């Protein structure tokens, strides 16, 4: 996989620290706005990236690039991903994928017509710990209660309170706790349990944006409460509770560093199976293999979860109170 990166923000800095852990991938070029050109050049020098661009059309026209990583603010995902597909590039698009199910279906249709791969970069679903959690569910079933919590006091929250609104806190740019953090919880629940019957989002609003909130998902046989907060501090703990036992873990639902299975009348068993120290390495190794092998079946399977997540997100935004 020969990768071109669109963006030079925090997620790109984070990704580049682990790019050398991704097999069969070369980061060929990076795009940034002219305002951030010096940042892109510094990244290119530090990580031996051949070229920098300040025109994303030029990057997409680069014949050495076969895949574009869309790592820009949420509201720009759709137009940039579409442009990349139109330039016959595979696409890895940061979460949340796009702003609506209509946009998601349009991009997938275009990718399929062109014989290209498009996937959403969502770290937790590609971690070994997540795959083991899937296997452990039957042991604790039937499951009745799910509580997932991703609380992370935002590094931009203090500036937000002072009136400096970054994209992650700008509702016009698809910011907020639901889109930025609860997206991880939604992906997990969707991948584990599918679509709920009812969706209701209870948000704490400041300056017109949800800085924290609780998303309630109702299933015929279980209730799920998904908490996300950018305005609070806690070490979060998440639970999946069944009649025979429970699964729980501390910390970010985006990293799933470890988890514990506790059966009734048995000693808890702790798992830590993640292969890589960085949360993004597993997903990008999967994407590189998927693209190199042109594995459309895996791409289709991943898109099912993306689309279900988009459906839940849409209902959540429409139900916000």
TrEMBL record:
Domain Gfo/Idh/MocA-like oxidoreductase N-terminal: 2-118
GO molecular function per UniProt: nucleotide binding
Xref: Gene3D superfamilies: Dihydrodipicolinate Reductase, domain 2, NAD(P)-binding Rossmann-like Domain
Domain of life according to the entry: Bacteria
Residue intervals of the GFO/IDH/MocA-like oxidoreductase domain: 145-247
Protein name: Gfo/Idh/MocA family oxidoreductase
Lineage of source species: Bacteria, Bacillati, Bacillota, Bacilli, Lactobacillales
